[in-house]
Amino acid sequence: MEYGSDLNGLLTTLDTRVASTNPSLPQTIYRQSSHNSVEKIFEEVELCLEAYFGMIEDCKDHPEWIRKIEEDIGQNMAFMFLNFDESVRDNLVAESDLFQRFDLEKQKFFK
What we know:
This protein is mainly α. The chain has one domain (2-109). The protein has helices at residues 2-19, 38-58, 63-82, 86-95, 97-105. Helix 1 (2-19) packs antiparallel against helix 2 (38-58), helix 1 runs parallel beside helix 3 and helix 2 (38-58) runs antiparallel to helix 3 (63-82).
């Protein structure tokens, strides 16, 4: 589960970077950086999604671990996606099968 903890830490960092690109959040004008562009963040988030779904696949025979991964990592990932501007989120879903898969499954995190 150390891998899951590391992934959670990375998601927290990416969440901060994603939030700095959302023009509807106050104070983002002071955090503009080319390192936080959607294109750069997209590559890193897609790797996180790949790791997340890999963990889910590795635990497919252990439903209690799947639930724990979804509760710990899946909820953090779903919250991070809420920080993407809607037009950006729509483009990411259209461009990536991983984003589309997560977008279809994300409703279970908002019960």
